[in-house]
Write a structure and sequence with these properties.
It is a single chain. By secondary structure, the chain is mainly alpha-helical. It has a single domain, classed as Arc Repressor Mutant, subunit A (Orthogonal Bundle). The protein has five helices and three strands; from the N terminus they run H-E-H-H-H-E-E-H. It is globular. The two termini are about 20 Å apart.
Length: about 90
């Protein structure tokens, strides 16, 4: 779990607001590092790819973990926002 804050920071931009949609954050991880969590064209192109259900479960478990440790906010409609922890650090909260 100690890698999780680093992963969150890796998907944030300097000018991001206090929270960004998880889909945007995930797309950045793919573009910057080739890290795929959940269904994505890059995952579908892998020769030994996992089933879509497993990819979705992987993304949902990551969302739940991030929410549980305070790095994301999950809503009842299934939307997850990744919290920009640099905003929290700057404000001293």
């Amino acid at each position: 779990m100690s890698l999780l804050p680093t992963l969150v920071l890796a998907g944030l931009a300097d000018d991001d607001p206090p929270a960004i949609p998880m889909a945007v954050w995930l797309d950045r991880l793919v573009a910057r590092f080739g890290l795929v969590f959940g269904p994505h064209p890059l995952a579908r192109s892998m020769p030994d790819r996992a089933p879509e259900d497993d990819l979705e479960r992987n993304r949902d478990l990551l969302s739940g973990l991030m929410s549980a440790v305070g790095l994301a906010r999950r809503y009842n409609d299934g939307v997850t926002e990744v919290l920009n922890i640099t905003h929290t650090w700057r404000s001293g909260q």
